[in-house]
Design the sequence.
């Protein structure tokens, strides 16, 4: 079974600053996908960014980027120019390749962006 | 395209009752997955349906069941409700052509 660990239960950052959320995972699979989802107070899960394990290039989506270290099984999320609307729970998730859609989630990191 | 919809949004039941939750995926999506979110256990995968067949199943007791219809809409059923079943139940859909799942707003189930 795959496990996903987010070691930072809570984090805080000031507006316009940069913050990095950590995620590590344990798997014996070679092909898989990694995701960061955001869940604001509305509880709506929103996809932030995705990474395919066979791609060495780190994914980026506007202010969001990842640092994917496959050998270290690490997948951190960097948020640049933090905005108040980034306040949310952030979940790291793992999914095996080619075996259907079943996400394994970490426990989440609660991010608070302050003025 | 309309997003994933879930009904009802809120539900209150008593122990021992059963409940059925509904999920309508994004048009054209053939995969529907269900997740349970609780403060203690976090987000846990329940099961996934693809083209009316259960393709994956998480580690939940048999009281939790689901099905998918020919129009890809899915229902999940929980029988003999327990207090610990109180949770946010999230449904997610995927086209089957990409690896990305899109989530609905969830159904908040409270068991008294």
Sequence:
């Amino acid at each position: 079974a795959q496990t996903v660990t987010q070691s930072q239960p809570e984090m805080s950052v000031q507006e316009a600053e940069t913050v990095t959320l950590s995620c590590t995972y344990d798997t014996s699979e070679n092909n898989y996908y990694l995701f960061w989802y955001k869940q604001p107070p509305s509880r709506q899960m929103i996809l932030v960014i995705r990474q395919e394990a066979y791609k060495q290039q780190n994914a980026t989506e506007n202010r969001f980027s990842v640092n994917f270290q496959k050998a270290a099984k690490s997948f951190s999320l960097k948020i640049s120019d933090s905005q108040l609307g980034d306040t949310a729970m952030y979940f790291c998730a793992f999914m095996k390749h080619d075996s259907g859609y079943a996400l394994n989630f970490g426990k989440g990191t609660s991010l608070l962006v302050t003025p | 395209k309309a997003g994933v919809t879930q009904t009802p949004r809120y539900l209150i039941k008593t122990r021992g009752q059963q409940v059925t939750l509904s999920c309508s995926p994004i048009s054209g999506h053939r995969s529907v997955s269900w997740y349970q979110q609780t403060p203690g256990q976090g987000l846990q995968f329940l099961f996934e349906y693809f083209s009316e067949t259960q393709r994956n199943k998480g580690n939940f007791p048999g009281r939790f069941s689901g099905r998918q219809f020919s129009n890809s809409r899915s229902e999940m059923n929980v029988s003999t409700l327990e207090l610990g079943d109180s949770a946010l139940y999230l449904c997610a859909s995927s086209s089957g052509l990409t690896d990305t799942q899109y989530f609905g707003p969830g159904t908040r189930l409270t068991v008294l």
About this structure: The mean pLDDT of chain A is 94. Chain A has no helices and twelve strands.
